[in-house]
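In this supplementary section we document a worked example of the pipeline. Step one takes a protein sequence of length 157 as its only input; no multiple sequence alignment statistics are reported here. Step two produces a three-dimensional model, which step three serialises into structure tokens for compact storage. The input and output of this example are shown verbatim.
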Amino acid sequence: MPRQPHGRARKPPNSLTSYQFLKVLFKYQQNRSVLIGLLRTITLAKAAISGLLLFAATGVHPSHAQDMTAGVIMEKMEPKERYAYVSGIVRGMAYARFRKDTIAAGSKDERGMICIYEWYEKGDGSTYAALEHTFRNNGHYPPTVIIATLLKKECGE
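The serialised model returned by step three reads:
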């Protein structure tokens, strides 16, 4: 073991000593089967405790979760937030279309992405107004499904 400048030997880290201890215990078949079950139980217990502490600390509980449907977006989000949210979905779909078309063509193909951008960014705001109208009429669907359906009609697949 390397020596420190003052002549004292370093202590091995706890993980190393634990590993060496487990190695001895796993030497015999009977101990091995018992310890593997014990280690799995300890790991699952640690995971359960961590999850409970996370929920308790953050206040996020599964019973309070809510689906992000178009109706929820229209009711709960402010207009600026809603616009940013929908724009993010559209831009993400445009980039996904660019990647899909480029891979299929084997070279850079921006036609689908440009079609999506031109559809969404019309100067008169009619596309966004139509999206909001569709969200209100189909509030039980996720917004990504609604936008993807409208994009498919406008720009194909």
